[in-house]
Amino acid sequence: MKKERQLDASGKPKFGMTDKLAYAAGDLGCNMSFSLKGTVQTFWLVFMMLETGLLSALLLVVQIWDAINDPLIGSMIDADRRNYKMGKFKTYIFVGACGLLVAGALVFIPAPKADVWLKAVLFILGYVIWDACYTVANVPYGSMLSLVTEDAGERAQLSTWRSVGSMIGNMLPMVILPMLIWRKEVDADGNPVLNSAGEQVETLLGNRVFFAALIMGVLGFLCFLFMIKKITIRVDENAVKTNETQKFNVFQAFGSFMKNRPAVGATLAAMAMFLGMNSATIATTIMFATYFGKASMSGLVSMIGFLPMFLFMPFIKKIVNKWGKKEAAVVGAMASVVGGLLMFIFPLISNKTAALGMYVLALCIFGIGLGVYTCVSWALMADAIDYNEWKTGRREEGTVYSLHSFFRKLAQGVGPSVVLLLMGALGYVSANGTGGQTLQTATNMCWLVSGLYLFSAVLMLVGLAVVYNLDKKTMAQMTEELAARKGAVADTSKEA
User: Fold this and answer.
1) Closest Cα partner for 24 from 120, 135, 141, 181?
2) CATH H-level superfamily of 17-236+250-479
3) How confident is the model at residue 1 (pLDDT cuts 50, 70, 90)?
4) Which helix (H) or strand (E) holds 203?
5) Of 131, 147, 203, 448, which is the most exposed, with the fewest CB atoms less than 10 Å away?
6) Would you say residue 226 has pLDDT above 90?
7) pLDDT over threshold 70, residue 245
């Protein structure tokens, strides 16, 4: 006999494991698509052989558009007061999920022999379509966390489970894809073909990426359907209305966002990951291909940076209740700085096996710090949405989250673009492929990766420790005052 879920005071199912699993499935669905962004750079640089400067410019163009359309869609969701059968947020997520079934593969159309202008057109069109579908699904998904529960501990749990879904969604393509799309080269006699670093040359099989993206689109769609069916929204989506007669003003929205210190601090920390660590994805792949000769294993090694999150996941609610979300995240960021500093040692080690071991050790320490922050990162933004309501009286989930997403995506565009330019300046030549790079270029990739990780950790620490101002004491005050306001509104409604 099927066990019925217990109901809360409002008659809705009580918050529990079903909500956490469903929310995790949502980010798993998002990351079945989002996690391919690192592969985009590798695909177009190595397989399509776009020159680093051109690819840098194209990435910057599409990511700026990507960033701009986020607040537009977020404001559209906030202003939408229509009644949907599934609810407003779930409806938008479903529409975006349908598009992502095939959109992710459009940016991986294999045409390495096409003219450069045609490659540029294929890149821009494919990316814009893919990004539009992703934004329609992701913006309401991120905003929805603050509507599932108002309890701080439960929000932290949702944030943690979202990170679990994100990690699994990243791990699958991170670990499995490189093993499928890279092939070690041998000569006619079956002997390994070696590069300048003395490692076996590996070739990217671009045709396989297209079909892998299609499969991931289907898997992501199934995850979205599970989330839509199982998760419960307990806060009225239109409970706190903004002035509906006032049109959305992008400059006013930005001004309001910049006055929201928690939102700015949490956003700066998120940008740090994209400007540093995530931007290192292409450099890391090239480093493994040219310096270590292990491109097919690059994802497996990089996954180590995500695993420590599991150390904190079972205890995150207790950690947050005892010390606070900000306090825990700051300590984690400090650990990541230590890991970033240690990463500068491995390029100095001549023995490749020992160098790889040092890289893994530094990555583990970096990952331990990142694990703490990752567990609470989305809860920090949910609290920032509450902060906006506390200070302004307006609850604007879509607008606040979409502007957060705007800056994240701006970092996603600027970071890889700058890294590609740096790779070109450090000697990488696209036309030579991974097998034709010099030993000096391969070594330069090691230094570049180390610098990116340290930069990421330092900027994250600044955002969390200096800018983000919702410590445990302030959180308690904000929660108490917001509850009092809502109680007063409820009493007024009863009297009326």
Assistant:
1) 141
2) MFS general substrate transporter like domains (1.20.1250.20)
3) very low
4) strand 202-204
5) 203
6) yes
7) no
